[in-house]
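quick one, two chains, predict together pls
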Amino acid sequence: MKILVTVKEVAEVEDDFEIDGLGIDEAYLEYDLNEWDDYAVEEAVQIAEAGDDVEVVSVTIGPERSEETIRMALAKGADRAIRVWDDAFEDVDLLDVAAKTRLFAAVVEQEDPDLVLTGVQASDDGFGATGVSVADEVGFEWAAVVNELELGEDVANVRRELEGGVEELTEVDLPAVLTIQTGINEPRYASLRGIRQAQRKEIAPMGLGDLGLDASALDSPIELTGMREPESESDATIFEGSAEETAAQLADVLREKGVGAQ
Amino acid sequence: MTVLAVADHRRGSLRDVSYELVTAGRQLADSTGGDLHVAVISGNVEEFGEKLNLDGVDTVHTVANGEEFNHDVYAGAVEALYAELDPTVLLMPNSVNGLDYAPAVANALDLPLVSDAVDFDYDDGLTATREMYESKVETTVDVDADQVAVTIRGGEWPASTKAGDAEISAFDFEPEGELGSRVLGFEEVVGGDVDITDADVLVSVGRGIEEEENLELVEELADALGATLSSSRPIVDAGWLPPNRQVGQSGKVVTPDVYLAVGISGAVQHVAGMKGADTIIAINTDPNAPIFDIADYGIVGDLFEVVPELIEQFN
């Protein structure tokens, strides 16, 4: 069986930052593997470890810098990786869901996996839509927000985490795309041995032409036109001073509310 | 223009976002003097149809097919309604079920998708407000297309409550072929020993606690205050506390007298579970953390310095 895991290198923003036009100034960004994708990688690797003859292929869309992130997936046990990039991406401010769908669908068609795992969403643009959109595009079944997965012969039995502490038990025909929720497993740290092995694993670069696409695949009717810091709506009373002073002021408030009175 | 909004329901009840979709849909329809159509699919659609007969709704389309949400039924029914109504904007909820069908519908209909919108207006095209980088920035996106699919974040529009005089119309839909997924049932996340929804005072801990062994410090604080310990999602994901302690959209909704958030940044999913607390207090190092937007009292500081001092105050 072959499992394709989509991963994304996301930018994390420091507490204090500055916006520069339609982006955040690079100085305030740190890059990391998207948290949800980390769980998707772990799930794929656990399936591979539990079964014979399971290949885990990781795919990302990103510039050369993102190889560092995709190597994390290799170090944790993915067998090989694909990195989709092209000079044409340089001019794109926002890769919308449809554009990502065209790219990943082309990869799915080339790789022909039995199962595709993605994170529920990416922490940067937060569309939360690519996995299900890709499933529709390639004619796979799907399930979104999966926090438990058991694979059968032709079906996946999943739990979908609904709102309010309720889970839905669903049976999904394979091949399928599952979007993975945090908490489904405990992602491992990459071992030193894994990191060394990852250096020898293949990261195949793929341009638009390799996927049978051209620059029009990146066209999007959705344009990013503004970015700003949200206005604070805070009317909180903020206590000032040392830890001791602020704690004392807070303790007064808590006592007023009857907290701590035995 | 025509707006088509798709309601959300579960286990016999319309979810709040359904009423919010009516407000959002009316807002869009008003900007061009258009019609608002609402669709409700599966379940007791007659009862749901009556409840969705709200002020500003022109037509409610009821699609009787199955009891509970199934994404194949939803996607097929929405696509069929779309073909009939040809709406300018297709509105769906950014709920867990919305995440499970809206992207498929947008792709099948070749519509651009703006997900998780928190605001929008329409003037020759849709302009939507979305958040990025875990709510640290707010962005504007313009959509250059005649028709668009949008999912809205729950809790961002007021719920419509005033009864209306909409036409209620049954829409016949049968999915083609066999369904590729089948809902087998539902389960509540295990209750466990403690019911955090009962507590008058909650000390709630988040990612800021950094390490599992540091939880002891917050447990000590909860003891000193006579409070119950709860947490945000990452603590439960890490397995440091059981799921019945989780406050938030996917956890429990709590309404204590006092909610003391320790090292919790206040992501929207968490806030959805605790904003009903009478008094909200936050301790966090980041002065821009969204938790301070809803807090009544706050300390901008290191929890590892503040919490021990606070324990001291009560011991």
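Chain B touches chain A through 103 residues (CB under 8 Å).
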